[in-house]
Design goal:
The complex is a heterodimer of chains A (457) and B (196).
Chain A lengths: L7 H8 L3 H23 L4 H17 L1 H14 L3 E5 L2 H14 L4 E4 L3 H5 L2 H7 L3 E4 L2 H8 L16 H12 L8 H18 L2 E4 L3 E3 L4 E6 L3 H8 L2 E7 L3 E2 L5 H12 L7 E5 L7 E7 L3 H6 L14 H5 L1 H6 L10 H11 L16 H5 L6 H14 L5 H15 L1 H17 L25 H8 L2
Parallel strand pairs in A: 1-10, 2-3, 2-4, 4-7, 5-8, 7-10
Antiparallel strand pairs in A: 5-6, 6-9
Helix pairs in contact in A: 2-12, 3-12, 9-10, 16-18, 19-20
Chain B lengths: L2 H13 L19 H11 L3 E5 L2 H11 L6 E3 L26 E5 L2 E3 L5 E4 H4 L4 H4 L2 E7 L3 E2 L2 H7 L7 E5 L4 E2 L7 E2 L6 E7 L1
Parallel strand pairs in B: 1-11, 2-3, 3-6, 4-7, 6-11
Antiparallel strand pairs in B: 4-5, 5-8, 9-10
The chains are: A alpha/beta (457), B alpha/beta (196).
């Protein structure tokens, strides 16, 4: 399940070779975005809810350590064991040691983007532990040895014929079968057997409540609950930013989350875990993995307000046409592009450029993260730190020289106009990345300056 | 405890912004003309079936019609236990529930804006029951339907029991080409009876 090493533009180019599929991907995600619009417009107080959510999250960021310590105290009182992991490695080791202690070598897992971020499955597989993802979309991509391409819709890059082929190969469904009902039923039967035979279940955390020391997990399929309630040991992994102060704040977040994600009024199951059932062990792993660094970056800390609804991806004109895998990061799309450079600037320097800066992401964000502003600011940080190279750097350096000097500007634009009239192919050619999907307009005979000099009298 | 705990908390203390207050305004009223009607509409929209009934005997009769000759029926509604052929008291391991076809469980509150019903461990007896069952019946009283989630959380004490969940419709997925399929891993159908 190795991550792509192509940069975003190159990976998008690969994705764009199958044009009908790109159109389908684009239209499907836009349809989800429209469902979100309808759901949000059903609530007259929508904008006030976003504002409230944003303010609660700002408070959380500013009071993070206090809330986490309160949560830890209350969770421990509830009989939940709390672990702290400074980074992905430590997170993975904690989970491995919990399983090893009980002699467990097979675990089921419901959706957790954090474990994708930490590459937990790979880590455990190397230790001889099998992990089965139980969310249908995640199971599909897992069988195909691919990472999820979307945080809410993990298999959104696939057609039902792809799923049919995958299930035929791995689950023995009929060859050529593409009916989603039939394929889902096959996965239900296959995973039911898995739920009943695994002793350990890992879930993500949508919200952890400081005041009561419990946590909330939201699913439509019921897979988190099937796993957790049948397991001897339930491990929940959370990035520390998932904390909220009080249970009453859940009203705000649960009203926003699913409407923003899929346009449903709420997920089928919003489960509140506070104590293990008798005889069960319940653990929470609180993970930093770069979050405390991001908290210290004034321009970027707001990215930690994210509740992982995916609305910014569904609306993004670049994401819709480049696919989630082109972002080579566990979290793709606009939010992923402002989270990823914090983890590794060199590896993810391309991502803040995978945007038109149109601002649609910020407009739909339920917690009002200034996503497109942060994309713009990351570009500057990355350039300053020397992570922007090649043509982009050279051409921008040249442009800044030219634009700063009236003489150079006049000279170069006169030349460019002449060149474009004589040889338009010089700009509109495949070597110029900008012109791959665009044509330059016809060059006018004279510049504005020339026109002005002629007509000012 | 661990050193990572201290290093994480120290880094947060050092890097966090100045304290910002929680908002005063974070709950809102939903003024539906008729919350019962709104609840029914919403639940149907999300794939649940709903019936308003006068009493438990009517529910008993309707269950007989909707689920004729069902075996492996588990009931946690005290006055309807005669519909069960499975004794939950004798179940010690939730894996024993794997063949349950129908579970009939009371809910605490219904939420008109999203069709959800709050059910706790106390009502479900076994946490796995409402998920592992093939079909689920939830029963609520009309007067427990609240307009929205803010009102629901006003009435709920989330940590009163070790586990509680909002159930909104049957289990579903749209992970294959965004085609909605009902019956992913949890219950394949949900019928809500509202006693009024």
């Amino acid at each position: 399940m190795s991550q792509h090493t192509l940069d975003h533009a190159a990976a998008s180019e690969v994705f764009n070779r199958d044009e009908p599929r790109v159109d389908w991907h684009d239209e499907t995600l836009w349809w989800v975005r429209q469902k979100r619009d309808r759901a949000s417009k059903g609530l007259p107080e929508w904008e006030d809810l976003r504002e409230a959510a944003s303010q609660i999250k700002h408070h959380v960021l500013s009071n993070m350590n206090v809330l986490l310590e309160t949560f830890e105290r209350n969770a421990q009182k509830n009989g939940i064991t709390v672990h702290w992991a400074a980074n992905a490695q430590e997170h993975n080791e904690i989970i491995h040691s919990l399983l090893a202690k009980k002699g467990i070598d097979r675990m089921i897992k419901s959706k957790s983007m954090l474990t994708e971020e930490c590459h937990l499955n790979d880590f455990l597989r190397e230790k001889g532990i099998e992990v089965i993802d139980t969310d249908l979309g995640e199971r599909i991509v897992q069988l195909r040895q691919e990472p999820p391409s979307h945080i809410v819709l993990p298999a959104i890059h696939l057609k039902k014929s792809d799923v049919g082929d995958t299930f035929h190969e791995h689950l023995g469904t009929e060859k050529g079968a593409t009916d989603p009902q039939y394929l889902t039923e096959a996965a239900r039967q296959h995973l039911r057997e898995t739920f009943l035979t695994r002793r350990a279940a890992l879930t993500g955390v949508n919200f952890a409540i400081a005041e009561t020391g419990g946590f909330v997990v939201c699913t439509n399929e019921g897979n988190a609950d099937m796993g957790a309630h049948l397991s001897e040991i339930h491990i929940a992994s959370m990035g520390f930013e998932k904390i909220i102060p009080k249970a009453e704040h859940l009203g705000v977040f649960l009203r926003l989350l699913t409407r923003s994600a899929t346009g449903q009024p709420v997920t089928a199951y919003s489960s509140h875990f506070h104590r293990p059932r008798p005889g069960q062990e319940m653990h929470i792993v609180i993970v930093d993995n770069g979050r405390s660094t991001q908290l210290g970056r004034e321009d970027f800390r707001n990215s930690l307000k994210c509740i992982r609804c995916g609305a910014c991806m569904n609306t993004c004109p670049v994401y819709r046409r480049s696919g989630g895998h082109s972002y080579h990061n566990a979290v793709a799309g606009p939010i992923g592009s402002i989270l990823a450079p914090n983890l590794d600037m060199r590896k993810n320097a391309d991502l803040p450029f995978a945007s038109t800066l149109c601002g649609s992401c910020s407009n739909v964000c339920p917690v009002k993260i200034d996503i497109h502003d942060q994309l713009y600011k990351w570009r500057q940080v990355l350039a300053k730190e020397g992570y922007v190279g090649g043509i982009k750097k050279t051409s921008l350096q040249l442009a800044s020289k030219v634009l700063a000097s009236p003489t150079l500007f006049k000279l170069s634009f006169n030349t460019a106009r002449a060149a474009l009239r004589i040889a338009p192919w010089a700009a509109n050619n495949p070597l110029n990345a900008w012109s791959i999907h665009r044509d330059l307009p016809d060059a006018p005979k004279e510049s504005f300056r020339q026109w002005y000099e002629k007509n000012r009298k | 405890m661990s050193t990572s705990r201290e290093s994480i908390l120290n880094a947060i203390r050092k890097n966090k912004p100045d304290l910002l207050p929680l908002p005063d305004q974070f709950t809102f009223e939903s003024n539906y003309p008729d919350v019962l009607e709104q609840y029914q509409q919403t639940l149907q929209m999300i794939g649940g079936m709903v019936e308003v009934v006068p009493d438990l005997p009517t529910i008993s009769q309707r269950i007989g019609e909707l689920f004729p000759n069902f075996k492996e029926v588990a009931v946690t509604v005290p006055d309807l236990t005669y519909l069960a052929d499975l004794n939950l008291e004798s179940v010690t391991d939730p894996h024993e529930l794997e063949d349950v076809n129908l579970a009939i469980i009371p809910g605490r509150y219904g939420v008109a804006e999203n069709g959800a019903i709050w059910v706790t461990e106390q009502e479900m007896k076994h946490r796995a029951l409402p998920f592992i069952t093939q079909h689920l019946v939830l029963i609520i009283r009309a007067e427990t339907i609240v307009p929205n989630m803010h009102e629901a959380y006003r009435r709920i004490q989330v940590d009163e029991t070790g586990f509680g969940t909002f159930i909104a419709g049957p289990s579903k997925t749209a992970d294959i080409e965004q085609s909605l399929v009902v019956g992913a891993h949890g219950a394949r159908s949900l019928v809500v009876f509202i006693i009024k």
